[in-house]
Amino acid sequence: VSVQELVNESLKRIEATDGKVQAFLNVDAEGAQKSAARLDQQLAEGGERGLLFGLPAGIKDNIVTEGLKTTCASRFLENYDPIYDATVVQKLRSAESVTIGKLNMDEFAMGGSNENSAFQVTRNPWNLNHVPGGSSGGSAAAVAAGQVYFALGSDTGGSIRQPAAFCGVVGLKPTYGLVSRFGLVAFASSLDQIGPVTKNVEDAAYVLQSIAGYDKMDSTSANVDIPDYVSSLTGDVKGMKIGVPKEYLGEGIDPQVKQSIMDALKVYEGLGAVWEEVSLPHTEYAVAAYYILASSEASSNLARYDGVRYGVRTENANNLLELYTKSRSEGFGPEVKRRIMLGTYALSSGYYDAYYLKAQKVRTLIKQDFDQIFEQYDVILGPTTPTPAFAIGSIINDPLTMYLNDICTIPINLAGLPAISIPCGFTNGLPIGLQLIGKAFDESTVLRAAHAFE
Ligand code: GLN
Q1: Could you confirm whether 135 is annotated as catalytic?
Q2: Do you find a cis peptide bond into 135, omega within 30 degrees of 0?
Q3: Atom of ligand 1 nearest to the CA of 406
Q4: Reduced to 3 states, what is the DSSP secondary structure of residue 61?
Q5: Ligand 1 center from residue 17 Cα (angstroms)
Q6: CA distances from 149 to 161, 200, 409 (A)
Q7: I want to staple 273 with a disulfide (CB 3.0 to 4.6 A). Which of 90, 184, 240, 454 is the partner?
Q8: CA 197 → CA 275, 355, 384, distances in Å?
Q9: Is the dihedral of CA 169, 175, 178, 184 positive or negative?
Q10: Do residues 86 and 193 touch, judged by C-beta distance below 8 A?
Q11: What is the pLDDT of residue 162?
Q12: DSSP letter string over 300-311?
């Protein structure tokens, strides 16, 4: 098939399904068709094909795209038209995929359900009354609904893996520093990572191959050699040592989710891997530490939205202070305000030691928990989330319950490690996600383990 046919199929599928799913904030049909025509022509002239040649892709709307609005699903950036491409977008262009449009998310990536989007609530394609997860809910829903071949998401505390689990697709959060954050609108800079959302593990390997690598534009970018991820998908996990943290299968886990994880372990046994129960004793402090650290960083990062430089500017300010406060009051939604207040408080003089510094120390303990396990095990396996996708509206007014849902994903961001979520079963017609966690920069082993299970 030609690239133009692929792209038109994607656009048709969006037209047919997105009225219900509402994954897209902005579809760039014209731009996509132009790129498709150019790629077809290039191939006709005997040109080489890039790694992702012709594949229709969706981009989470916190990744900047030149000439294509990037809103972060926030009123504040409703009309923000970036003048440059994120490094990952440049890399996708080199790999020759075709950007179809921008995908919905929780405002500024704060949330786990897409209910915090200022514009629309994306639906779970498996059951339209349920959330797709978040914050990369649009990315996961678009891939699950077959609207695009793959999508990019971002993961600060689970935002790629949790929606992937809820929508029955594959989501990979790379090691912190492996993928450039240049052009990713910052939420919590020490935790944010961009990664692929795909239908299967092989596709995830191809997309990661295309976007990973050192970038001088990101001061936290790691200067490491990028292995051939695709060739690591050998299907062989004989002798692989898997640790299963008892903290991830304890209180609050849905019995069906637990059953699916136990069934998956049987599959691994059958493939010749060995598993043992392990302990990550500081897990219970991870959510508290994360919400202090992520909110602190967010309060600092979001200070740039002052009504002067970006987006919303209030119409009725009489002086500079009013310009700031009214623009921010009008531009940000309730969850973003909650985080800014929490973070500002945690960083304020007199409270810094009790909250921010304490949370940093907990972060170190959590990282050490993982280091110890990885002295003896190749990967860690558990559920991605304690429950399948919840109903829209069911917990949005209970932020603590919402936060506690991230218990299995947050520790991985605090430790900076790579982790993947892959589908491993269903309950009541909703998908269940299995999470595999690896050593820093050992995406190859994570992908190999995930691929062997598929
Ligand atoms: N649900 C988490 C939060 O609300 C994670 C978000 C993310 O990874 N961007 O912060």
Answers
A1: yes
A2: yes
A3: 1
A4: coil
A5: 26
A6: 17, 10, 25
A7: 240
A8: 27, 34, 14
A9: positive
A10: no
A11: 98
A12: HHGGG-SSSSSS
Catalytic annotation on 173? Answer: no
Closest CA to 74 of 167, 155, 187: 187
User: In the chain, how many H helices and how many E strands?
Assistant: 14, 11
Q: Classify 132 as helix, strand or coil.
A: coil
Q: Report pTM.
A: 0.98
> Is the C-alpha dihedral spanning 349, 350, 354, 357 positive or negative?
positive
Pairing of β 379-383 and β 430-437: antiparallel
Residue 310 is predicted with a pLDDT of 83
Q: Which residue has the tokens 């262009």?
A: 93
- Token code pair at residue 124: 């779970």
Tokens of residue 347, six digits: 């960083």
Nearest Cα residue to 72 out of 443, 445, 333: 333
94 is catalytic: no
Residue 309 is predicted with a pLDDT of 87
Which residues, given as ranges, of the chain have pLDDT below 50? none
Taking CB atoms and a 6 Å cutoff, what residues make up the pocket around ligand 1?
Answer: 109-112, 135, 155-159, 187, 294, 406
Spell out the alpha helix ranges (H) of 283-333: 286-301, 320-331
